Request: fold
Amino acid sequence: MSSSLQSSHGVSPEELRTAAEELRDAPAEVVLAWVERRFGARAAIASSFGVEDMVLIDLARTHAPSVRLFTLDTGRLPPETYEVMDVVRRRYGVEIETFFPARERVEALESAKGYFSFKQSIEERKECCGIRKVEPLRRALAGREAWVTGLRREQSVTRTSVESVELDATHGLVKVSPLTRWTSREVWEYVKTHGVPYNALHDRGYPSIGCAPCTRAVRPYEDERAGRWWWESPENRECGLHVRR
Reply:
């Protein structure tokens, strides 16, 4: 555990370790209630408005109403994502803080390398993700003490060790994933039981939704994130937002 977390955000390694142990197998509602008590508006849900994030938003309205909501608008999102974002604003009456990539960096990238450089290599793809996602995330997390994600262990081989509460050493704050042990079936059962709105692309075979050029529908035998950067091997299919070390 990093001691810098204690000095910058007032959360000691001991407190974080205790919370991680106590909440490891806790229901999502209990984890969110802890976030509300401990951080309130100093925490935020990072949402790409996939189905897991929609479940989190719905749960948070009851169990963590002070927690803020933000998104990263890469400039290449499918229209269906913007549509469900607008539904969230109207239905839940919440502000969605939106963070865009730096204009100068996007212009320089596209001028120098074109519009599909991310397909040339893993390095080129990570450069694009770094500009459109990673750098805006740093700004989105600045001044916050915790962020809440919709990560689930079942999603891919890169997420099998995600914990409900852990230290995000990269950004120096607490990272909370209340749905880490939920299955896809449990997520969809919650959506249907509670009438939660969701991205229309899910009904077209898209279990995971990111930027439009980097997302496709998956085949029945493929894993949930097979449609993300499908030209790469599974162990590389992360954009850099969820780095664990």
